[in-house]
Amino acid sequence: MTKSSMFFAEPEPPRAQCVQVAEGIQRIVANNPGKMTYHGTNTYLVDTSEGRYVIDPGPVEDSGHLDAIIRNLGTSPTGILVTHHHSDHFGAAPVLREKTGLPVYVSRVFPDDAFQPDGVLEDAEMIADLTVLHTPGHASDHLCFARRDGVLFSGDHIMSWNSSIVSPPDGNMHDYCAQLQRLIARDDKIYLPGHGPVLRNPQPYAKRLLANRERREAEILAHLANTSDTVKNIAASVYRKSDPHIAMAAERNVAAHLEKLLSESQVVQDGTYWRRN
Fold first, then answer.
1. Which of 13, 168, 182, 192 has its CA 20 to 30 A from that of 21?
2. Are 168 and 252 a contacting pair, CB within 8 Å?
3. How far is it, in rounded angstroms, from Cα 159 to Cα 205?
4. Percentage with pLDDT > 90 across the chain
């Protein structure tokens, strides 16, 4: 835990190369580093009883990453699984399908009407050796994939390097917290996230993520105890972030918390101002 007392860091990974991270699972990290993506998007090549699946092909802009995926498909490539529609995860899926003929599977509530998937996935459905978990919150269509041996592909729902942004209207804080509780109740052994390193013994970490959300919520309510205020001002008070990109992400999280609190009748909205109910 070098990034902070809560999160995990790793050295910059090799690009366009497969690295085994668990039995039958290889990771390729896209060259799209950033303040919201860490070193880049993790693409996983997963061997199953039906053949090799690609989970999250990554951004379409990184042609070297796409070439590395194709080079490492092996002799029995079977399909492409997408955790959610954000471009750093889904972007290369149409091109990979075009180049390989592999079918693309997405959530049934995948919001991009311009893309026609080859199959849609429901919560609790099995595909090959993986159980589909619909985990909305970070994105309405977010999916995790669970293997019987305790490996869970957690996408952006739970990342090891940082907490996830929850940005309305597609992001929903009530759903996000509920799905954190759902994963906490499971007995998965390791998480393979959409960004950052492998997360072992994940339940205590997931509990800390949930506690952090609850703490932020309490801070928002405390800020509104004696005044009404805007999302921007609340975020500045609660998060105290000077970097403009991080400050903007904090504002989106505050907006999501306020929508959750509004649904629970703990706050009311008056134009751009919010106050305790």
1. 182
2. yes
3. 10
4. 96
- The number of C-alpha atoms within 13 Å of 159 and in the hemisphere containing its C-beta is 23
Q: 229-230 and 273-276: which strand pairing?
A: antiparallel
pLDDT tens digits, one per residue of 57-70: 999 999 999 999 99
Whether the pLDDT of residue 2 is over 50: the answer is no
Give the residue from 166, 113, 162, 163 showing the smallest Cα distance to 139. 166
Tens of pLDDT, residues 72-110: 999 999 999 999 999 999 999 999 999 999 999 999 999
Tokens of 170: 């597609």
In the chain, residues under CATH classification 3.60.15.10 are 19-201
Instruction: Please tell me the class of the 224-276 domain.
Output: mainly alpha
CATH fold for the domain made of 19-201: Metallo-beta-lactamase; Chain A (3.60.15)
**Alpha carbon 146 to its chain's center:** 14
CA distances, 25 to each of 35, 42, 205, 265 (Å)? 26, 12, 22, 45
How far apart are alpha carbons 191 and 209 in whole angstroms?
14
